[in-house]
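User: Hello! My lab partner asked me to get a predicted holo structure for this protein. The small molecule is 2-acetamido-2-deoxy-beta-D-glucopyranose, SMILES included with the sequence. Please write out the structure tokens.
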Amino acid sequence: MHLPPLLLPLFGALCSSATSVRSPRPLVLWHGLGDSYASDGMVQFGELIKEIHAGIFIHSIYIVDNNDDDRKACFYGNVNTQLAGVAKQLSDIPELSTGFDAIGFSQGGQFLRAYVERYNDPPIHNLITFGSQHMGVSDMPACSAWDLLCRAARGVALGAAYSAWVQDNIVMAQYFRDPSNIQTYLNANHFLPDVNNEIPGQRNSTYADNFASLNALVLLLFDQDKTVVPKESAWFGTESIPDDGAQRVLTDKTIIPMRSQPLYTEDWIGLRQLDERGAVILGTCDGEHMQMNRACWEPVVKQWVGGMD
Ligand SMILES: *[C@@H]1O[C@H](CO)[C@@H](O)[C@H](O)[C@H]1NC(C)=O
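Assistant: Hello! Below are the structure tokens for the protein in complex with 2-acetamido-2-deoxy-beta-D-glucopyranose.
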């Protein structure tokens, strides 16, 4: 049987249009403390990524769909409530329905990780975090002198970090992990000890299953970071805590690296599983906190963003 000649080119055209429909995996961004979802920096970063991955769909997460209020929301609010809203926001975006890669800047990184553990619907494929506080901070992040919003939040947080009101209203306090007061942190903080599955008897295996389902976890640390204390939190490091759990300040600020953390060795969140599969990539950026040099982010974006499913 002969095909009518016209059908052949038509068939060919259909085939090639079917392949050109393939587009890069979508990308979700979560900005850092003091930034907002549609700031000049965020918009510009998105445009640079589009130059590398033509046609990529990018969504920038917001807490409030208004730039000024969104900036406030990274200082003030309840992180658990904010996360639930973000999970709803992401699930409502048709372009993301089959999954996406994600980049979290600073605190946006641990919030995206919490999204993976608690929701992950639609799922994250590669999770990339820049200068994030995965194991919290032992001091409140420094604010620039002119940043009154930040200074006000920091002042309140320093005053009574583990009071119920502060824990419910000041974002940075919800990842403050005071090495001299771990027991109070475990009792009073309802965000970080939960997503890190730190509380014995309350570990949620869904968190570990979801987190271990990532294709890759790429953790970038800024080697001159003075804003995040300790900067190794970006790689799941912490300062050491008193062996006896006593409430005292250690002068010894030795860093416990990721692979020596109980969270890792006992695999509370699936991190060890990921690492043993070769899926945890530890990278360094030259510079102070969130100094996004092209030499640092470009290779990451080329390798871990914009893949085809
Ligand atoms: C564990 O986490 C999942 C996902 O967030 C949640 O649906 C479930 O209720 C949690 N289980 C417990 C016992 O809290």
